[in-house]
Amino acid sequence: MCRQVLRILALIGDKWSILVIGQLRDRTLRFSELHRAVTGISQRMLTLTLRQLERDGLLTRTVHPSVPPRVDYALTPLGASLLDSVVALGDWATEHRREIHENRRRYDAAHPPRTRS
């Protein structure tokens, strides 16, 4: 059971998964909209992330027969059930980002990198 839980936490704890889930919280989005909204993600990484989230049942992928094909992504009820946790983590990070930044700065100043001789 622990291994299964760890695998699930690794997936949903992945920064791209969290950002994608957060973007889908209010509405269905197309691939291109998600790509623009999730700053810094490559098309390949977005594709892999979406496939994994779909595989786990956290989102649906709907292909519309049009030219060019239109693909929409939406959270499933299971994916939506993650929103409170994802939002809480985001709020916590926002609230404590300055404190953490300052802690890191202090630590780095007290522990400079070692140089090789």
Record the strand order, biggest sheet. Answer: 1-3-2
In quaternary terms, these chains amount to: single chain
Task: Summarize the helix and strand pattern as letters.
Answer: HHEHHEEHH
Helix count, DSSP H or I runs of 4 or more residues = 6
- What is the first-to-last residue Cα distance? 47 Å
What spatial form do the alpha-carbon principal axes imply? Answer: elongated
Helix/strand structural class? mainly alpha
Question: Which blocks of ≥5 consecutive residues have pLDDT under 50?
Answer: none
User: What is the residue-averaged pLDDT?
Assistant: 91
Overall radius of gyration: 18 Å
Number of strands: 3
Largest sheet: 3 strands, antiparallel
Strand content: 5-15%
Helical proportion? 55-70%
